[in-house]
Amino acid sequence: MDFTPTEEQTAARELAGEIFGDLSTPERLAAAGTGSDAELWKALCAAGLPGAVEDVGLLGLVLLLEEQGRVTAQVPFAASCVFGLLAVAAHGTEEQRTRLLPGLRVGTAVATGAFPARGGVVASVAGVPAGGSTGASAGEPEPAGTLTGVVPWVPWLRDATEVLVAVRDPAPRGGHSLWRVRVADAETEPVELTAPWAAGRLALDGVPGERIGGEGAYDDVLASARTAFAGLQAGVCAGSLARAVAHTNEREQFGRPLASKQGVQLRAADAHMDTEAIRVTAYEAAWRRDAGLPYGTHALTAAWWASEAGKRVVHAGQHLHGGMGADLDHPVHRHFLWGRQLDAYLGCGSEVLEEMGDLIAESAESAESAESAESAESAEGTASPASKHSVQSRQRSVQSKQHSGQGKHDTGQEETA
């Protein structure tokens, strides 16, 4: 593994840091309220940063989102890149990429996802079965259909022009499929979250949509989203910790800076280690995705660290500010709100851990089955022709007795003649 940024990734991160630092100030954030910063979004798009994500990959996006998280910039950068740009680029048809990507690159189109971190949105699809064959050959447009259902809250919905909906496929197939719908065709209403993410309620009642990708598209986009928002959480935690360090170095108690207290140092050190754990697990998941390696479990690991450790870090940042941390207007409180919102959005640590446990159990069962099959095949290959014939004869004898009702059993073991 090599997480060293390329020249392109480094240049994009530095440019993003400069733009976020200049425009996302506490004063501007206070003026924006719970809405997005339209001027900041225009500046990011004018600099070509959304379009650059195609070149710098998911690892580059994680680096950019770290810079956003440091200042809690209120723009739909993560959502539009993950649920729009990267999703269409990776899973859209040639026609869809030609039609949809230009607007997403320059920011005139903004995407978000009706995409809970755990599970998916339950909706009914008419016209084309959600779990059925798409009927489209390679290079042909994906089929259209209609979606019906309600999503209680979707982040950045008030800024979005399109939304990627995760639709639960009917049993026995299970799984999920991805459908793109225009926000203008749906019913929306504002919803306020813990963090000011310009969220909204999405109501779909026979809304036309088009399918994006086929089997495996949902899992890939979900893993990418987990990784990207874990990177955003790393930035939120780094910003919170930086503010706490600055405060404890400036604030004096009994003639000494608070930072000289051993308890303060230990609390800050724990927060630093948690932040680094979030960062490195997000980097690894993103690097594996860019390298074309399996990364689903790595994305879950990053999401777990971002949820559990992120919660600890933002609590520590507020605690180290003492009474000032309780001030709702203090900049560190914004980091606290973002950290808790990301914790909830990623599924909370216990839910992510449960999903990871299920995957580990399934992997162990698959490995055991494969090992048993390999052992049986090996034993059959090394047995002599005579022994093979003897075993087959005994098996036929047992089967014959079972069918005729004359099979004998003793403590669960079959007796053979």
Descriptive notes:
The protein is of the alpha+beta class. 58% of the residues lie in helices and 14% in strands. It contains twelve helices and eleven strands. α4 packs antiparallel against α5, α4 crosses α7 and α9 packs antiparallel against α10.
Descriptive key words:
417 residues, two-stranded antiparallel sheet, seven-stranded mixed sheet, 12 helices, alpha+beta, 14% strand
Topology of this protein?
Layout: H1 7-23, H2 26-32, H3 38-46, H4 49-71, H5 77-91, H6 94-106, E1 111-114, E2 124-126, E3 144-154, E4 162-168, E5 176-182, E6 187-191, E7 199-211, H7 217-250, E8 252-253, E9 256-257, H8 262-290, H9 296-320, H10 331-345, H11 348-382, H12 385-404, E10 409-410, E11 413-414
Parallel strand pairs: 1-4
Antiparallel strand pairs: 2-3, 3-7, 4-5, 5-7, 6-7, 8-9, 10-11
Task: Sum this structure up briefly.
The chain is 58% helix and 14% strand. The protein has helices spanning 7-23, 26-32, 38-46, 49-71, 77-91, 94-106, 217-250, 262-290, 296-320, 331-345, 348-382, 385-404; strands at 111-114, 124-126, 144-154, 162-168, 176-182, 187-191, 199-211, 252-253, 256-257, 409-410, 413-414.
